[in-house]
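Can anyone check this?
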Amino acid sequence: MIDGVSGGAGVRRAGPWPAAMSAASCARSGEDPDAWFPDSADVSEARRQAAGAIAVCDICLARACCLELSLRNWDIGQHGVWGGLVPAERETLRRKRRVRHAETGSVRT
């Protein structure tokens, strides 16, 4: 979720966040903010808990940008639904990226 996490009161908007937020469907979805933060660490259960939020992501034009921002800014991106994925799914992506970058000598996470 972009607006509720990165654009909330008292949170500085800098870099690519404002552009992503302006295109993000979550900012205008009307979903309960808690819908973006499943309680379960189990992927299947977390996806079930966050089904409404994930459905918003499925039609969002900012989905790819949102996902990338969450992966690059893990201090925020490790929580909630970002880019249609729950935390455990994004952690798997981060792990795969680290392995791939280690194999290619790249430093990007």
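Reply from J.R.: I decoded it. The chain has one domain: 3-104.
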